[in-house]
Amino acid sequence: MLNYIWGGLIISSLVFALVYDTRDLVRDTYRNGADVTLELAVEGDAAQRRQPARVRISPDSYRALYGVDAAPTGAYEGMLVRTADGMQLRFAADASVPEPWATIRDMTSPRDNDLRGTVLALDSHTDSTATAVIQFADVKFVKMTAIAQAAIDMAETAVSLALGLIGVIALWMGLLKIAEAAGLIHTVVRVTQPILGPLFPEIPKGHPALGMIVLNLTANMLGLGNAATPLGIKAMEELQKLNPNPDTATNSMVMLLAMNTASVQLVPPVILVALMGLQINQLIFAIIIVTFISLVVAITAAKLLSRMKRYRTQPDGEV
After folding, report:
1. What tens digit of pLDDT does each residue of 250-268 get?
2. Residue 234 — φ and ψ, nearest 5°?
3. Domain that includes residue 253, residue range
4. What global pTM score does this model have?
């Protein structure tokens, strides 16, 4: 089911991008091929290959050209660069330019992040001022390009995350083996059986799967996301051993997943602490209350759905 959801989201995003890009092409949002007239305050020797300049465009001209409400305010630092292919005007990197210039810059110069265009004509008024007619590079399929780039970036992130978890998983799996050999898991199961037993009635009394579940939920409550991941994997492996139908998740698996998704946070997550610092103390009680409510809702939903015939699957796979 989850695969269908992801597939639907991907198709929807592609359709949205195609509609949006088609609209941009019809409206010529970025005025591809249009000439833009700018005022330049030029510095230095005109014979130099790189000549500093201050760039200004009339706000009324900008609004009329691109059909937008926003317009550049003030002047921008720039550089006239003479190349073998002609003269280029390059704005300063990270200049605060309005749309659609910002998108043109992101699409045509993602590495240097400087808006640049080809100078078609340069008329000098004095030794230090001039009027330039420039043309920016064509910009097309902005949304499709953004989706493709996001897919590449997320694929890279997924690989980095997977490689980063190898050490954490190895460490915690080793500690679990030590705890199991020392009898700690059995002790945890015996203590927590009366509390978690009703939530996981399919797990036999004294089974190590319950101990893994306890450790996984505890790590989540303490905000130890990286520690909770290997513990959750191990808990699912133990539950799979009890699964009479390996191709279908049991009620216990669903309950564990629901509790993981909405577990109570007694300690703020590490990411929030890193982002907000001491300000996280202002949210601690709200976090506890909200996650407790979400945990109750998750448990209730899992229990109710498990009783409905539509969601009950028999061991032979027949509904």
Report:
1. 888 999 888 888 877 766 6
2. -65, -40
3. 183-311
4. 0.59
